[in-house]
Amino acid sequence: MNIINIEHIAKVYQVGSEEVHALRDVSLKINKNEYVAIMGPSGSGKSTLMNMLGCLDTPTSGIYDFKGISVSEMTDNELARIRNKEIGFVFQTFNLLARSDAVHNVELPLIYAGVPSTERKERAKQALVDVGLGDRMHHKPNELSGGQRQRVAIARALVSNPAIILADEPTGNLDSKTGEEIMGLFHEIHEKGNTIILVTHEEYIAEHALRIVRLKDGLIEKDETVEKRFIPKVKASIL
Amino acid sequence: MSSIIFELNEGLAIAWRAIRANKIRAALTMLGIFIGVTAVVLMSTAIKGIDNSFKNGISALGSDVLYVDKWSWFSNDEWWRMRNRRNIDMEDFHKFKELAKLPIAVAPVTNSVQTIKFGERKVESVFLNGSNSDYVKTTNFTFDQGRFYSEIESNSSRNVAVIGSEISSKLFPRGDALDKTIKIGGTNFKIVGVLAEQGSVVLGPFNPDNQVFIPIGTIFKNFISRHSQTVTLNVRAANPGMVEETKAEAEGVMRKIRGLAYDEPNDFSINQQEGLQEQYDSFVGIIQIAGLFITGLSLFVGAIGIMNIMFVSVKERTKEIGLRKAIGAKRRTILAQFLLESSVICLLGGLIGLVAAILLSLMLNQFFPTSIQYDVVILTIIISLVTGIISGLAPAYTAAKMDPVDALRYE
């Protein structure tokens, strides 16, 4: 079954008196347990598409069904609920709460889901163990390395068992070795049956995925299966 | 219901984290509210205290007493006409006493201002009250020591005096005033009574605590000429229900004494302390409102401080707001988070301010009447909460309506 079904969506922004067509006509289906990379130069519309996929924004026209439910018509609160339950975000800049420890950062989505405190802590700790940070539970972001921070962010994305993991340039702020570790972690998460959408502009990062969607000028230029997939050698965690 | 409690609980936890994360800033913001609340509470306890004190004072004067006077106390508009009225003299008093049947007591009162001495100690500018022995029946005086001067002492114009509690404590710090001889304006007087505290700072020199009472014949003999000054007739009705009838009778009697034709206006005035209450309300009432307004302004400034800080805080945490929204926080959750934050700051500031104000008013009570009411405590809590919510509303709304995409991109 499709998790994501997009048909002919377009997004137009009004910048001053000018209309900017960020997306012109994009159709895309993503199935369960796919590992898709969305690529394109800046201005190609990939950020807009990602916001759309992440239910942060709604299209100007077209159909977006998430697990068979139409998203295009949803209210802000309904979108918030979908983001909370079905989507796990991983950002380039990690976006952790600076003054809170790893456990609190990871339990955040569960607070908004209304999960009681003890269960929340339990699940947050388990998620941290899963990403290999079992010994860093009560460290604050400034006491963690870049790679560790991104792992906390990934644990936060995984903790609510979402339908898709949406990663926006997850290695953009990391050195290549740490970046490779994080890609290894994504590989393992995918192996466990999760659906991953990766937004990047780097070819070698995109090649970790099974499928690459290339965008240009608000249109899909190419939608291809990766022939020679790059499988990270680094053992990322003790899963 | 349980989900509201859950959200409130979590919201408070988040607010508390945010406040702890910026301790100095939160403390400084609280200071603004603290000062505002302290000022408002202190002001309202002072107002309550002055009111109580005034009411006590006025009830010591007796609410069922009429004052037949040459002057009308509470209207200044025809003072030049009143100035030309005949003085009320002792002859008028005697006739009045004979003709008026309703009053339970009639006392002629005249005044002088004198210096009182006992040995080395002296009190200057004391309001000296001259009357007859019925005067005490026109008041609600209570005695600390001794008694009021008697009819015989009054009629024979003896040099006897009854002193107010404050005069007593100034001249006789050890409280042994009774039977002592004091000098009033150079003449010896024997103290036959000391009043208990009647209690009203507001009345100033009219406060019985600061007065000395001597027979009217004695005051004429020693201090003022019998014919130069008008006397006031203090007329006490049998009970408060009889005030109006007693007043009507008094008016008729006075007109008869004065031989006024039916078309001539009164050449005297009948005053009541209700007028005093009105006067008090119109004068002190305005000062009180002004006082509350000014102290309220300081609370307002505190509220602006909170609003300012909350705006800064929202701006600073734009990215955090974006993240919270991205991972599922609804608008109202974000709204509640910031409202709770400003409310907690205000409530803490308000509670500290309340404690400070109570301590301060207990201290001030030594010099100035204050009165702490329980409703002030509840009111303060409500005021602080409302201040927090109102001043947090605009910033919280700004945060709640942020677009998550823009907020996440904010640097």
How would you characterize the overall build of this protein?
- The complex is a heterodimer of chains A (about 240) and B (about 400).
- With about 240 residues, chain A is of the alpha/beta class.
- Chain A has one domain: 3-Layer(aba) Sandwich (Rossmann fold), CATH 3.40.50.
- Chain A is built from seven helices and ten strands.
- In chain A, the strands form two sheets. Chain A has a six-stranded mixed sheet with strand order 6-7-8-3-9-10, sandwiched between helices.
- In chain A, α3 crosses α4.
- The longest helix of chain A has 16 residues.
- The mean pLDDT of chain A is about 90.
- Chain B has about 400 residues and is of the alpha+beta class.
- Chain B folds into two domains: about 190 residues, no CATH class; about 180 residues, no CATH class.
- Chain B is about 55% helix and about 15% strand.
- Chain B has 13 helices and ten strands.
- Chain B has a six-stranded mixed barrel.
- In chain B, β2 and β3 form a beta hairpin.
- Chain B starts with a helix and ends with a helix.
- The chains are: A alpha/beta (about 240), B alpha+beta (about 400).
- Chains A and B meet through α2 and α3 of A and α1, α10 and α13 of B.
